[in-house]
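Sequence only, no structure available. Ideas?
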Amino acid sequence: MTIRLTLLCAHPEGTSADTVFGCPPPGERGLPGAGVVPIVLPPPSLTVGSPSRASTQTAAALALHATVEPALRDLDYGTWRGRTVADVVATDPFGYSAWLRDPDAAPHGGETVRQLCRRAAHWLDGLPPDTGRTLAITEPAVVRALLVHAMSAPARAFWKLPLRSPLSTVCLTRSGGAWSVHPAEAASDRGSGRHTSVLIPAPAASRRLAADAKARRRGEKTV
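Reply:
I predicted one. Tokens follow.
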């Protein structure tokens, strides 16, 4: 039997231009600066997701209920969680550089990239043959780790994989023992795909809101 697994990067809350490690759970007020973003998804027979609020809200925007899968949880960023990349680079440039170069480095005291890749590989290899068409909504780091295993790539390739976020999609298929990687919209049975409009912050709207916020802060400093 063939397993068709579509990976969808969960959409984190926030309009900051700076990447935040382990984005905090979104608030109850919804997603600011919303815009309609169309994505193509085949109708899944099963939807699973990471335990994060971003994953839950992404599934809700697609009118889907995702079964929580703990193995798909985001990378444990340790003491970096909730901090921006700019802040970490400013306070621990050597640790950040080592983290990007060495998959066994954990300057934050959390999970290493290699440990994440092993966790993702264990989950992927454990999918039963009758899994069918499944949608997995999780964080970009986990998607990268799943791709590392599916492509039989070394853990050092983790940061080299081209992956846009949020709402990046990629499809993994397995018939027999090997995985194949395709763009989600190019997977087989394209005709049965579904064009979904998701109400979330579009990247352009997010950048505009971030620029407006910076402009307001500059104005406040000059007063």
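The longest helix spans residues 203-222.
Hope that gets you unstuck.
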